[in-house]
Amino acid sequence: MDQDLELDRCDLNCQLNNKSHRTSEVGCQNLIVRRGQPFTVTLHFLSRGYQEEVDQLALNVETGPCPIEDSGTKAHFSLSDSIQEKTWSASVSSNNERALALTICSPPDARIGLYHLTMEASMGSQGTSFHLGNFTLLFNPWCPDDAVFLDNEEQRREYVLTQHGTIYQGLKDCIEAVPWNFGQFEDTILEICLQLLDTSPKFTKDSNRDCSRRNDPAYIGRVVSAMVNCNDDAGIIAGRWDDKYEDGCSPMSWMGSVDILKRWRRYGCQAVRYGQCWVFAAVACTVLRCLGIPSRVITNYHSAHDTNSNLVIEQYLDEHGNRQKKHRDMIWNFHCWVEAWMARPDLSEGYDGWQVLDPTPQEKSENVYCCGPAPVKAVKEGDLAVAYDVPFIFAEVNADVLYFLQQKDGSVKKTIHTSTVGQKISTKTVGKDDREDITHTYKYPEGSDEERQVYEKANHQNKPPPAEENELVIRIKGSENMNKGCDFDVFAVISNNTDIDRECRLMLVARTISYSGVLGTECGKEEHQSIVLPAREDTTVPLRILYERYGDCMTQDNLIKVVAMLQESQSNDVLLGIRDIYVKNPDIKVRILGEPVQNKKLVAELTLKNPLPESLIGCSFMAEGAGLTQGQKVKELDCPIEPGQDAKVRIDFVPQQSGLCKLVVDFESDRLKGVKGFRNVIIRPMPK
Question: DSSP string covering 243-261, please?
Fold first, then answer.
């Protein structure tokens, strides 16, 4: 009688499989594969090899704390002649003496997560079970039958594999490109992302139901949206918008997601302090890319926060142009969320593709602070009944703004602006460091018939009357070199479009402001009791903004709101001009010293010139880059940096990966914070 089949060991072929499944950047110590794509394991036996006519082999895969076949978290399957589609299957790829190579394939709708792989071997009536090892299963944008399939290789590389990117901040007229290290393949990040799913209240309440739904990217996206903020759970980030960050880190100081995710795990799933919208969106993007869902960070300029779902942002201003707190509606200078690519079989046809997920805690959805996934197509067409949270996102990009202007005699003047909200919606261009404007994917052109028709479809009957050409027009204009540490001018430019001279009163007020629309301290004011506006001419009136007035009260957002109120003397009609201006930080110069070769030491020289008329104290540089630095590198400067003096350090690192990498740099001090820089570095492979 033949001897029993005895397993010596199982080789999961991690290096070969991970490379084939595009997960080798995570490492090759553990098997990480994508669903719907075959992988190979090799079984090594002791006394004899596998005999097809004698031995019967079957495999078991299990995921989650309570694997159940009916829930899709457990499967039992015997060897077959070939790999089967849409189900777990295995076949013999080679049988050489005591080594048996098996090809295994998961269905394209398998549940993602950590799996245990076992084998049952039987000869006659006798059977033995062997534990073969563990593997992690991810979504697969390269598999046509996977719900996250993306039929464009350049986009797959950008939105799944690229570990660095750009997030857009600033103002619509002064867009700032901020580098970010997503680092989804950095050490332990995958384990942290899976831990995030297991920390969700949905898992702790009913782990079987939660794990059974992990085949659905829409479900996973909703869990991630809720778990990136900590408002309802043991989520990753605590949000704060009041410029008081002494008991944590300023949102401006983060350069990437890796440090945030590692801190969350290191301190027992305690929320990391602090984040704002771009931090929430970037961390969500890291988690989604890590799990295999194509994703990208989006910035919407002049983003509305509609608190009462009427698609109108009500703003109340007193006679001095100051905003009154009569309503919670806000307009953020910019707001960031994340888009994830997926099919939506839960909806009617036409809503596949990019979906909005917004982890910033603003309003509750189904009693939880999360938002989405909402199809971008539904937002553009005003289909507010489509799941999830389309009305809120529609208002963010398409609400009308209604100003109530309190006048000195107690009367209130209303003005409506239909083209303010939802400007220059931006994301990073595929394969380049350029900005791509994707406003057209969210809305039809401002003022077009289609745009107004969609708004009316969403808002029913409240169509404003068509705008007439104003006899007087006022706008705010910035000047050159609006740099932090400098004094500069802003201008009210008034156009008189009539054939007669007009006499007016003008008030200009400047106040610091946060990017989320919260007003701070007044830093400039001019009142002109009588200005004559010549017929058919423009009149320019300056307002001087002094550093001694804005330096101490400006938030780290570096924003100032300028309001101009023009009252025509004869009619007492009031015109309103509003603009936010961005005060620019200095640049960080990044020089790479040495030959950029994998596993060879490099030096980065970082330099920043102090632009302020006062010393900088407590200065430090931080640098990090996926595949470059193995975590954050921090260098502190011992001495204050005097006005006009350079702060300069050198940071050593050894690149672990070849190819295009991005070194992201941050500078912090007592009076100058959150200054960002970056340098692209092409690392040559290590010579063989």
Answer: S--TTS--GGG--BSHHHH
